[in-house]
Amino acid sequence: MRYVKNFDIGAAILFLLVGGAFVWESRKLAATAFGSSVGPDLFPLVLGSLLVLLSIKLIFESRKQLRASTGASDAADGEKPDNTRFLLILGATIAYVLLMEPLGYIISTFLFLLTGFQVMSRSGLLKSIGISAAFSILVYVLYVNLLQGTLPPLPAWLGM
Question: Which of 25, 42, 70, 77 is the most interior residue, by most CB within 10 Å?
């Protein structure tokens, strides 16, 4: 348990630094873009801020659990990091980044979310498909129509 909590704290610090870099660098981007009322600085700023806040929360929760389990034996917990799931999510994230332009936002986000849901919990395939599709389409429609932003559209080979 101690190893897992120390890993959580280390990962949270890494994500805190990455989120801080996102926020810092997003301030250098233009506030507006041609043909869009939402500038390219919005997503990195919001996502970086969210990553910073969640990282801080993870640090505090991990430290609290680490203090609470100080007397417990590490061998008795039997909890080890799940490297297979981590590598699958990491691979899905890399594929998501690489497929965003060729497949468009909706399809690539749908596939990424579906993969993530199934890696984390193998049950409820139909539920995962529904949530992934609804989230992908809803975010696309809201961002493009309501906020007047731009996201990669569906691929041309679909004929839409």
Answer: 42
